[in-house]
TrEMBL record:
<protein>
    <recommendedName>
        <fullName>Sulfhydryl oxidase</fullName>
    </recommendedName>
</protein>
<comment type="similarity">
    <text>Belongs to the quiescin-sulfhydryl oxidase (QSOX) family.</text>
</comment>
<feature type="domain" description="ERV/ALR sulfhydryl oxidase">
    <location>
        <begin position="110"/>
        <end position="212"/>
    </location>
</feature>
């Protein structure tokens, strides 16, 4: 077993396969389980799709797939999960939107009960904040990126405990996030608070202990005398979750 602080360095590699598996599960499982989606939940779903369209690092077919789903819902005031599921399945067959085989790679645990989708969601959310910060488009600002992530977590993340904890944390977004870079750092800090709370919990994969991320082994300059150097942390996260660093397979 790896003791805390001696984690393998490759724990900080992002795989497209995890991102695609997460995106698919988020739509094809979490969303379609709802009977009727309307009101705030529908707005949250529409916004989530917009965020994916702008920032998910996908192929042209993947983008087309997301756009088709978004357009399908654009004039509706209520959609049923089942109907949406059928629509999504039809266009998955038609457009073949995924580049990878949708296997868990970076998020695979030492046992199927560990990691996977929740790990994939964090990975997806960090990727979206970093992509937004890099692309600097007008469609969303930093606060809106986080509010969209929060909307998805609130209405669709099947882990109710996770959702409730996360929503408590989101009250600090308004006063602390005014740029895309702030959003990257806010999510990093929120994730570290969750890591700290869950260290030693039964849900922790013993092969992937919860740590304050990144370790010195990941980023030598991110900590100085036990204090975070946020400029270095930001630069590190922007490298780790950038399109150029995302791998398709471990052999890339
Ligand atoms: P994860 O914590 O899922 O991290 C995935 C990867 O992200 C890591 O391997 C690492 O490469 C990277 N990473 C780690 N920390 C950071 C950071 N600070 N910044 C950037 N990158 C980082 N489980 C509960 O039991 N209770 C909860 O209340 C709870 N709340 C959650 C809230 C949200 C929004 C999400 C998405 C998940 C939540 N979970 C909760 C699940 C939990 O946080 C883990 O996702 C799960 O235990 C799997 O952990 P993991 O070892 O795969 O690493």
């Amino acid at each position: 077993l790896f003791s805390r602080g001696e984690m393998p360095k490759d724990n900080a590699i992002v795989y497209l396969s995890d991102l695609e598996a997460t995106m698919r599960y988020s739509l094809d499982h979490e969303v379609i389980l709802r009977n009727a989606i309307s009101g705030d939940a529908l707005s949250a779903l529409k916004s989530y799709l917009e965020l994916l369209i702008e920032y998910f690092p996908t192929s042209i077919r993947g983008k087309k797939f997301l756009k088709v789903i978004s357009e399908h819902m654009s004039n509706s005031e209520s959609v049923s999960g089942e109907e949406l599921g059928n629509f999504i399945n039809k266009y998955e067959l038609f457009l073949n939107p995924y580049v990878t085989k949708l296997k868990w790679i970076g998020c695979e645990g030492s046992h199927p009960m560990y990691r996977r989708y929740p790990c994939g969601l964090w990975t997806l959310f960090h990727t979206l904040t970093v992509q937004a910060s890099t692309k600097n488009l007008q469609a969303f600002n930093g606060e809106q990126v986080l509010n969209t992530i929060a909307g998805y977590v609130k209405h669709f993340f099947g882990c109710t405990e996770c959702s409730e904890h996360f929503m408590q944390m989101t009250t600090t977004i308004k006063n602390n996030v005014s740029s895309f870079d702030d959003a990257v750092l806010w999510l990093w800090s929120a994730h570290n608070q969750v890591n700290q709370r869950l260290a030693g919990d039964v849900s922790e994969d013993p092969m992937h202990p919860k740590i304050l991320f990144p370790l010195k082994a990941h980023c030598e300059t991110c900590r100085q005398n036990d204090e975070w150097n946020k400029t270095e942390v930001l630069a590190y996260l922007k490298r780790m979750y950038s399109t150029i660093s995302i791998k398709q397979t471990p052999n890339d």
